[in-house]
Design brief:
Strand order of the largest sheet: 14-15-16-17-18-19
Structural class: alpha+beta
Oligomer: single chain
Strand content: 25-35%
Distance between the termini: 66 Å
CATH class of the largest domain: Alpha Beta
Number of domains: 4
Radius of gyration: 33 Å
Largest sheet: 6 strands, antiparallel, barrel
Number of helices: 13
Mean pLDDT: 86
Number of strands: 19
């Protein structure tokens, strides 16, 4: 289903209280080479012949009493996205079609509204209540549906050449050949069209004729698990919304259990009767499908919103989607209670994340890099984490707990230039090395450098006379990469 909104720029401004009513000619203008040119107009202005492309001076000469406002394509795009989110009430697969249209994949959705005709009528009625003129159309491909909605008609063959190409040069060349409609172009050999106008025109023609499948790239990806609830009368109380959310959670719990999955993210959309869509989402540290836990997380999240939910005239539709899922098997608690403690920690993380916001709680996560200072990073608490390497039983850790960023230079005395350190000076203090282990050689990331440059590091774990342990490295291989390798201290062991 395609919904063309030909008067969206003007009607968007008319909806604002400070703008004139729909009976006053309204012109939206933009500067073009020093002149003010009409880019959009409302129905009253179009009825008097004030069309886009006309100079503002000429329009005022013909109709002096007009209202003028600046043309705002960014505002129109934001309004179109807002309408697209509201259109997800009819189908989760919705895409805005700039500059003034919506594409909705209603496959398998029409029966929920009593058929395609009822669905189209509901869409037109709701958008009309918002003050927008709508031209709907149905077709097998998005291009055909939008062309029929924009130019009217029932058959694609009867559409004008503008539906095939927006380039005036292409349209003029087709008219010179005696062609006026898409159907006339379709009867020509494809090879002749491609040789004269290129493959792009042939592809556009096939899409209009519904001969080539054209997938719809939706504004929001479809969730693998979802549930929705409609209300005959809009609900506005917090208790009614919470009761509806609980029933939705029960519905998705049944679906997740059947799949052996749990949700990592639960997104609630509240569709208000005036077209506004309020969205609230919670995320969990581990896969979850327990209704009581999720309901408590939603309570925490709604209570922490900076912009509280405003039901207005009430919500007539609620939809709960689970876009992120993961395997979740039934867990057996151990006798020692360790699993219970881990579950309580996960629940605490979920509640804090719901109250403070995603990303506020952070932890160190392991990165896939052999460079020590790049082997970890700060990640949001609750994200899947890779296991940290564990030393062999009885062996000391291979990496220190504390790293210096950047590594600090030191002065080292060694028996030979490429041998282990015997003494080093750090922060004006001399340390005698009583034990050492190494070297651990770490090569530079030559593949990330344009010239392939980079020095090798030889790391040593050393212990001084007072029992303190340090992590030192020599930067550069002697006589192979540099004539004077430098030494650094990179970390301290506990």
């Amino acid at each position: 289903m395609a919904l063309a909104l030909p008067l969206l720029p003007a009607e968007r401004l008319t909806r604002a209280a400070s703008r004139p009513d729909a009976e006053t000619p309204l012109l939206l203008v933009a500067s073009d080479r020093g002149r003010q040119i009409i880019r959009a107009a409302n129905q009253a202005a179009l009825a008097q012949g004030l069309t886009p492309g006309l100079a503002l001076a000429d329009a005022r000469a013909a109709v002096p009493d007009v209202a003028v406002a600046p043309f705002d394509p960014d505002g129109d795009a934001a309004c179109l996205d807002w309408l697209a989110r509201g259109a997800t009430r009819w189908s989760p697969l919705v895409r805005p079609c700039p500059p003034h249209g919506l594409l909705i994949d209603i496959t398998g959705c029409a029966h929920l509204f009593g058929g395609e005709a009822s669905l189209v009528a509901d869409a037109v009625t709701r958008l009309a209540r918002l003050g927008f003129t709508v031209q709907p159309a149905l077709a097998a491909t998005p291009a055909a549906a939008m062309a029929l909605a924009r130019f009217g008609g029932v058959r694609v063959d009867d559409l004008p050449l503008a539906a095939l190409s927006e380039l005036e040069s292409v349209q003029q060349a087709l008219r010179r050949a005696g062609l006026r409609r898409v159907g006339e172009v379709a009867r020509l050999p494809r090879s002749a069209i491609a040789s004269r106008f290129g493959e792009a025109l042939v592809a556009a023609l096939d899409q209009l004729l519904q001969a080539t499948p054209e997938p719809l790239n939706p504004l929001l990806p479809a969730a693998p698990v979802a549930a929705q609830r409609r209300f005959a009368q809009p609900v506005a109380s917090h208790e009614a919304v919470r009761a509806g959310l609980q029933k939705l959670l029960l519905a998705v719990q049944v679906k997740l259990t059947a799949l052996g999955q749990g949700g990592r993210r639960f997104a609630l959309a509240l569709y208000r009767a005036d077209g506004h869509v309020a969205e609230v989402a919670v995320e969990t540290a581990a896969p979850q499908r327990d209704v009581a836990v999720l309901l408590r997380l939603f309570d925490e999240r709604i209570a922490a919103l900076n912009d509280p939910l405003d039901p207005g005239f009430g919500y007539d539709l609620m939809r709960l989607a689970v876009p992120d899922t993961a395997p979740l098997a039934e867990a057996q608690l151990g006798l020692d209670g360790g699993a219970l403690a881990e579950t309580q920690l996960t629940a605490l993380v979920d509640r804090l994340s719901a109250r403070l916001g995603r990303g506020r709680l952070q932890r160190l996560a392991r990165a896939d890099s052999h460079i020590p200072e790049q082997a970890s990073f700060l990640a949001a608490l609750g994200e899947p984490a890779a296991d940290w390497p564990r030393p062999d039983p009885g062996e000391p850790p291979a990496r220190p707990i504390r790293l210096f960023d950047p590594p600090q230079p030191i002065e080292v005395l060694a028996e030979v230039p490429d041998g282990p350190p015997r003494r080093f000076r750090w922060r004006a203090r001399v340390h005698d090395v009583t034990a050492h282990e190494g070297p651990e050689r770490i090569a530079a990331q030559w593949w990330r450098r344009k010239d392939g440059a980079g020095l090798t590091r030889d790391y040593w774990r050393v212990e001084d006379g007072e029992g303190r342990r340090y992590w030192l490295f020599r930067h550069g291989l002697y006589e192979r990469e540099t004539a004077a390798p430098r030494w650094y201290i990179h970390g301290l062991f506990a």
